[in-house]
Write a structure and sequence with these properties.
Number of helices: 3
Order of helices and strands: EEEEEEEEHHH
Distance between the termini: 67 Å
Number of strands: 8
Number of domains: 2
Strand content: 15-25%
Radius of gyration: 21 Å
Structural class: alpha+beta
Oligomer: single chain
Strand order of the largest sheet: 2-1-6
């Protein structure tokens, strides 16, 4: 009998599409006379259901998201304002990117449909950049920590990169002053 290999809200790589997606629904296929499903498919919001062998789980290595920031990820939402035929020039026709920053798929970043239609490749890049922000922040922190251990041993180019990283980290740590009334 079939067992689910992925769970709801898990980030997976869809091999045939070449994109990351999140499992929206686990769809068991039942047959009469069996107590368990005979096959499991996964709805990842890309217009059809996929088998487990078409998906690959995200590898959570050392470059995973920052624990304080959570798991920022890129989802694909169905395009409600255009049919797939109307947006065949989009990288993923019928969908648009949504970056979620909450475990419950709330919050994050979305773009208006008209803006996405004007330059979908630019919006796709922005979505991937925003979803990668926690890993890039961790990279900047690690670089800064590495150079701080022995600044005299670091090559000049690495010192310059660490200074740039320090500037970004300081900017992110700033708390804006309240607006004057």
């Amino acid at each position: 009998m079939a067992k689910a290999q992925f769970h709801r809200n898990q980030k997976v790589w869809v091999e045939s599409v070449g994109a990351w997606a999140v499992v929206e629904k686990i769809v068991p296929v039942w047959a009469k006379g069996f107590d368990e499903p005979v096959r499991i498919t996964y709805d990842v919001g890309l217009g059809r259901e996929f088998l487990a062998n078409e998906l690959r789980a995200e590898d959570k290595g050392e470059d995973g998201g920052d624990a304080d920031l959570g798991d920022w990820r890129l989802l694909r939402a169905r395009n409600k304002w255009q049919t797939q035929e109307d947006c065949a020039h989009h990288p993923y026709p019928g969908t648009y990117p949504v970056v979620v920053t909450d475990p419950n798929d709330w919050g994050g970043w979305r773009t208006p449909g008209a803006e996405y239609d004007r330059d979908p490749r630019k919006i796709e890049f922005q979505a991937r950049l925003i979803a990668s922000a926690p890993r890039l922040l961790k990279l900047a922190q690690d670089l800064n920590d590495l150079v701080a251990e022995a600044p005299e041993d670091a090559p000049g180019d690495i010192l310059a990169l660490a200074r740039r990283a320090q500037t970004v980290l300081r900017y992110l740590a700033e708390v804006p002053a309240p607006a004057a009334q």
